[in-house]
Amino acid sequence: MISDKVVSILNEQINKEFYSAYLYLAMSAYFDEIGLYGFSNWTKVQAKEEMDHGMIIFDYIIDRNAKIDLKQINVPETNFKSALDVFEKIYEHEKYVTSSIDVIANMSMDECDLATRNFINWYLREQVEEESNANDIITKLKMFGDEKASLYLLDKELANREYKKHEYN
């Protein structure tokens, strides 16, 4: 049986995942405004993945015969200065999400809910990838500095990212 505490924190995580999607959409809009359409594509794909993450938790709560409790989604930040600024914010946001997933992992152990603890392992692995992807792009952006040709090439690279539906394995 899943405890009320675990259900509550999972519902909070759904909200965080949907907020993340909103945040990535705001970033995508910024990139469209400044003509970095590859960066826009990358963040738009990321928004779809965040929606998947929220829906996986949603379905898990339903599968555990527990109650969904959706909350209001906060308005995301929309003031960005540069591609580097955006990706530094992405990295910080993903570290925040990682810490949130860590709390769920710990709470599921404290509540002797091994099913949820096993379920959340997928998210723990996913967050390592999320942080690494953001950090890789930050490294490239810092290496390029203000060189427009390199930014253009990175934009072309990010335009190739394709959405692949995330599913719990």
Please describe what this structure looks like.
By secondary structure, the chain is an all-alpha fold. The protein has helices at residues 4-33, 37-63, 83-110, 114-144, 148-158. The radius of gyration is 17 Å and the shape is elongated. The model has no long low-confidence stretch (mean pLDDT 96).
Number of contiguous helices: 5
Instruction: Please trace the helix and strand order, writing H or E for each element.
Output: HHHHH
What distance separates the N and C termini?
21 Å
Question: Strand count, sense and closure of the main sheet?
Answer: none
By DSSP, the count of extended strands is 0
CATH topology: Ferritin
Give the SSE layout.
Blueprint: H1 4-33, H2 37-63, H3 83-110, H4 114-144, H5 148-158
Short description:
The protein has 169 residues and is mostly helical. Helix content is 75%, strand content 0%.
Keywords:
169 residues; mainly alpha
